[in-house]
């Protein structure tokens, strides 16, 4: 084998080693993400139920819905967006309290 060919083989081996290392890191990161996702899914709504949070009151929910509907007639976009964000947060608390099945959300 001549020097040029040996040098090229060494260069290819280095490239393959670097690609293998990058693949190993990517797989490790992917596995970690899957593990964390499974942990979050396992904890999910149950964590809120176990924390003692009774969820938002019906009065609060109805008041926020009424405020949001009233804001629809206003020209202030900022107020509508703020109320929408609050409703989203409260809705998340409700779903966490009830769980997806009771809320009618299909989980696959």
What does this structure look like?
By secondary structure, the chain is mainly α. The protein folds into two domains: 1-44; 53-108. It is 78% helix and 0% strand. It has helices at residues 3-50, 58-71, 77-98. The protein is elongated and about 85 Å long. It starts with a helix and ends in a 10-residue tail after the last helix. 0% of the residues are buried.
- What percentage of the residues does DSSP assign to strands (E)? under 5%
SSE-based structural type: mainly alpha
How many domains make up the 3D coordinates? 2
Mean pLDDT, rounded to whole units?
Answer: 79
- Largest sheet features: none
Strand tally, please? Answer: 0
Number of helices: 3
- What letter string, H or E per element, gives the SSE order? HHH
Ends apart, CA distance between termini? 58 Å
Low-confidence stretches: none
Percentage of residues assigned to helices: over 70%
| Cα-based radius of gyration, to the nearest Å | 27 Å
Give the overall shape, derived from the CA principal axes: elongated
């Amino acid at each position: 084998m001549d020097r040029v060919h040996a040098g090229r083989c060494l260069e290819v081996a280095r490239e393959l080693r670097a690609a293998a290392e990058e693949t190993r890191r990517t797989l490790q990161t992917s596995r970690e993400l899957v593990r964390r996702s499974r942990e979050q899914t396992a904890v999910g709504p149950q964590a809120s139920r176990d924390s003692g949070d009774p969820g938002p009151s019906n009065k609060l929910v109805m008041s926020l819905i009424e405020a949001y509907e009233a804001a629809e007639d206003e020209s202030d976009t900022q107020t509508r967006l703020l109320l929408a964000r609050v409703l989203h947060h409260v809705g998340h608390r409700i779903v966490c309290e009830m769980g997806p099945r009771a809320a009618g959300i299909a989980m696959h």
